[in-house]
């Protein structure tokens, strides 16, 4: 795999999420992109049932790009511990019910069409939390590169040409906060970026005007 970045895309006023995905799809098609199936990334969060300070949270994520893997991130507040396991991890979490409780109301997912355009792989995600539409999240992967610092400028130019002014000039904070700028990119990097964005969407108590699915 290459280097991936995620970019939230604001839903225009008086437009629905579906209309926005359709608009972006037309833009990609005009550039010569070809649809290559669909994708899904989901996240379920478990809270520690045992009284402890600070409280511990386990985020469990799945990606259709890695169907044999389960990604989990243990968050103690001050530190995050990532783990990649197989499908048995889901069964383990069920057995951990006395210790960790699933926050079903915050289950979040991003799903939609995926496109190929030259060396780029683009995914247009409609983000929902408990069936409630939260926003649009665009994933772009530049497949020939494995070091974020080496290809961010190229990815930025592509994103800005495709999405416009909502794309900042600076590299996403994930890469600098986690010292991943000059490290070989891993699937877990994509998962952790999704988690950061999902947490931001969860903080939205109500959708903004125009944010309808």
Automatic annotation (TrEMBL):
Instruction: Please provide, in alphabetical order, the Gene Ontology terms of the cellular component aspect for this entry.
Output: mediator complex
What keywords sit in the KW lines?
Answer: Activator, Nucleus, Transcription, Transcription regulation
One Gene Ontology BP term is: regulation of transcription by RNA polymerase II
Q: Which GO terms describe its molecular function?
A: transcription coactivator activity
**Could you name the domain of life of the organism this protein comes from?**
Eukaryota
Tell where it localizes.
Answer: Nucleus
Main function: Component of the Mediator complex, a coactivator involved in the regulated transcription of nearly all RNA polymerase II-dependent genes. Mediator functions as a bridge to convey information from gene-specific regulatory proteins to the basal RNA polymerase II transcription machinery. Mediator is recruited to promoters by direct interactions with regulatory proteins and serves as a scaffold for the assembly of a functional preinitiation complex with RNA polymerase II and the general transcription factors.
* Family membership noted in the UniProt record: Belongs to the Mediator complex subunit 20 family.
State the protein's name. Answer: Mediator of RNA polymerase II transcription subunit 20
Name the lineage.
Eukaryota, Metazoa, Ecdysozoa, Arthropoda, Hexapoda
């Amino acid at each position: 795999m290459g280097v991936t970045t995620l970019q939230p895309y604001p839903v225009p006023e008086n437009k629905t999420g579906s209309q926005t995905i359709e608009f972006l799809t037309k833009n990609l098609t005009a550039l010569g992109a070809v649809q290559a199936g669909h994708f899904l990334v989901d996240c379920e969060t478990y809270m520690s049932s045992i009284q402890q300070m600070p409280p511990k949270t386990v985020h469990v994520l799945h990606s259709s790009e890695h169907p044999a893997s389960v990604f989990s991130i243990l968050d103690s507040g001050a530190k995050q511990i990532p783990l990649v396991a197989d499908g048995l991890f889901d069964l383990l979490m069920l057995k951990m019910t006395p210790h960790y409780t699933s926050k079903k109301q915050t289950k979040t997912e991003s799903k939609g069409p995926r496109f190929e355009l030259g060396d780029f792989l683009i995914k247009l995600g409609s983000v929902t939390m408990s069936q409630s539409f939260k926003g649009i999240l665009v994933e772009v992967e530049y497949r020939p590169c494995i070091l974020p610092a080496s290809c961010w400028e190229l990815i930025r130019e592509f994103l800005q040409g495709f999405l416009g002014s909502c794309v900042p000039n600076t590299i996403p904070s994930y890469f600098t906060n986690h010292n991943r700028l000059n490290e070989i990119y891993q699937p877990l990097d994509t998962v952790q970026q999704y988690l950061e964005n999902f947490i931001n969407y969860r903080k939205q108590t109500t959708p903004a005007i125009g944010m309808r699915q």
